[in-house]
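Weekly structure sync - notes
Attendees: PM, LS, DV (DV joined late)
Agenda: review two folding runs queued last week.

Item 1: First target. Sequence and structure tokens pasted below for the record.
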Amino acid sequence: MNELKTKVAYLHGLSNGLDIGAESKEGKLLQGIIEVLDEFADSVGSLEETQEEMEDYLDSIDEDLFHLEDEIYEDEDDYDKFVEVECPGCEETVCFDAGILDDEDIVEVTCPNCDQVVFVNDDTHQSADKPEMQEGKSSSSDSGQKDEVI
């Protein structure tokens, strides 16, 4: 910004040194051009400052997001395992957290499309197909069931 302002000030000094009368057509034109250039220099300077502030703000957000992701995803195995079953009613695939299988409370999983119960973790519910363990990042499983990378 300072470079533009310096150049505009230099042009202003040159125009004053030309001894062109400020009341002449050429003097008015030259003075008008220099004023517009000065306004452009101010606008560009303001944009540069705003851009720098925005970059600092985005860097701050990026750093905060990085720390938040570290806290949420500290153990990748906890967040990428899920179970996939087919709904007997609408035949859509329903996915849910594998933690439900080990939950001590009775949990019913319903299809979001038709609201039919697709899985109950109390071993009495018969689903259309057996639950299939899925992992989002790896292709091996501790349960011995089929894995797919999705």
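Item 2: Second target, run right after the first with the same settings.
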Amino acid sequence: MKRVDDFRLRLGRRELVPIVIGGMGVDISTAELALEAARLGGVGHISDAMVPTVADRRFQTHFVSEKLKLYKYNVANSDKSKVLFDLGRLAEATQMHVGRTMEAKRGSGLIFINCMEKLTMNSPKDTLRVRLRAALDAGIDGITLSAGLHLGSLALIEDHPRFRDAKLGIIVSSLRALTLFLRKNARLNRLPDYVIVEGPLAGGHLGFGMDWAKYDLRAIVSEVRDYLGAEKLDIPLIPAGGIFTGSDAVSFLENGSAAVQVATRFTVSRECGLPEDVKQEYFKASEQDVEVNALSPTGYPMRMLKGSPGIGAGIRPNCEAYGYLLDGTGNCAYIKAYNAEVAAHPGEKKISVKDKTCLCTHMRNFDIWTCGHYAYRLKDTSRRLADGSYQLLSAEHVFRDYQFSTDQQVTLPPAPAIATAM
């Protein structure tokens, strides 16, 4: 019976354990989590979602407060078109986050950054260019393009000295999305180094409509694999979404996938950035607690836990401090929904916005609990302690379980030592 460790991911001249930890934002896939993946010989992702906020936490910088101070006069204004990011400071925050992570890297693995096209930041093209180039400048091993078609993203860095050196990949949820990307970028003579096919059971934003349940990861992977073979394109294929055990991973690897991307099981690791009380909510979740909704201002459906405190919250938009989802005209779907509720309930101090959520503020505060479909199985991966809580896992334990487990088994962590009185 084969194990994940019987396979290797080949990226250029590198041979890696074929386990990729996805880039969960905001700072859920922390630098510590990515560093563990690299140390163990796999691939870890950090996320560039809200990098100024992440830098403030990691390095006690003041990127967010400085931006808020600059635009504080506009807080009560519904027009956010004047709220722009200082591109120099954005580059500084990105270089700090990426550079310090790369300086700490040990082991034979790689560290990539997940870069979301949907972080439009009131200047989509300029901010995306800065984020991509700053990550390359800071020495990132690779960039995974996510949350969008990225038809023009590679052109933003084609003149960068590391354009053909760093690994560049794309996340797609359909063959059509991949073919659009390849055709648009054909003139660059630069194929992606890997393609991540993310299915309908993934966590967070989905590349499907609310009819996501009619799609199947294996079917999409098979379609993409057949296309690549017919076109004689030797691009490593990495399925993602709903791969909960090492045996699940092996079933893809045996059918030609180069690696698997996994994330949900690492949300309850000590290295994950979620607060410990939130990790316990993940452990306690039942299947009925996991939902896909249309609350995200991006327009993509999102999978999360129903108990997320950000659902239905009616906080005032805080674009002057954050504003990561403002489009090129300074608009966001949450601002529109918030203003509609304020108009409908004049004079009320507290309102509820049910159809959209202020994703920037709530993700920053860990109040939107995104998760994969199988989050309700997390309780089966740990031990329940005497106080009713669940034992947190180490990222190494989860990684090794994927790497070496067989027969759909999940290895529980060693029981915690019981302190004895002297």
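Discussion on item 2: The longest strand covers residues 110-116.
Action: LS to circulate a short write-up before next sync.
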